[in-house]
Specification:
The chain is an alpha/beta fold. The chain folds into two domains: about 120 residues, Transcription Regulator spoIIAA, CATH 3.30.750.80; about 200 residues, 3-Layer(aba) Sandwich (Rossmann fold), CATH 3.40.50. It has a seven-stranded mixed β-sheet, with helices on both faces. Strand 7, helix 7 and strand 8 form a beta-alpha-beta unit. The protein starts with 5 loop residues before the first helix and ends with a strand. About 40% of the residues are buried.
Length: about 350
Amino acid sequence: MSDLPIARLAAAFAARADLMTRLNAEQTNAYRLFHGSVEGVPGLTVDRYGDLILAQSFHNTLTANDLAALDAFYGEALPGLVVVYNDRSQGNSRIANPLEGDRKVAAHAPRVIHELGVAYHFQARHAGQDPWLFLDLRAGRRRVMAEAAGRSALNLFAYTCGVGIAAAKAGARFVVNVDFAESSLKVGKDNARLNDLPIRPRFIQSDVFPALRQFAGLGQPEVVRRKRLPPFPKLEPQQFDLVFLDPPRYAKSPFGVVDLVNDYPALFKPALLSTAEGGALICCNNVAEIERDTWLDQLQRSARKAGREIREAEWIMPEADFPSSDGNPPLKMVLLRA
């Protein structure tokens, strides 16, 4: 017998009935089916990506009985969709479990998914660990599409460039995606080719710090403390109407340290200075323990120190497939106008 509480999966599925109808009408077939941290099984997530269901466990390994129960439930609830399981309960959230037969083929098969009328490439398993489209960021991509028409857009820590592709699809006049990983930008370029875009987005492989400092007009020296830094693309100062900043929790490079807990302003200041007067800067912070109003106060103080005053702040909440028990979801997104 499975230890997995199938009744909780059923309750989560029923709670999403209206949402799934709305998303289908918006040409969206990628969404979270079960958000375990809130819906009763901490560490378990179940996501639909087109014709595939991706189950991932981050605390405990699912048993064979658990997987059979998942197969049975979703086989009835969403017939015709294959279930793939990624066990990420080991160190660094690395995928630990081997797959065999048809399940292995399905996990590595390239497929196309859709969100808000935009097409994206997807594989349940690839050379990296994380899915190529983060579903909790849908609300951010939706907001970008509402803002983008006729505007220039800068997508920072672009990963597979979902935000930039969404902006281009929505009519942005110019889009720049910045990420250090060539493999992620390759998926982004493939995503661009997948869609009928009115413009050709730009893809810059670079550490975000030197790119941002150059766009902001702060400059990036090639030598610091008598140490030559790695090569980086040379960019002219430029301000954008719409900037999207979605950094990882922590990352260190020769150019600087990304630390969302202790030093968000290190990124925020050059991002703000790269945002045109009257433009919009959307900032993300995925650290659960950071309280959103405290974080916003930090951003407002940082803006004043940079000589810019935040005139408007609008919280962008994750959509209904990412419920929150206290109204303070782990992923915080705020749109700022300064």
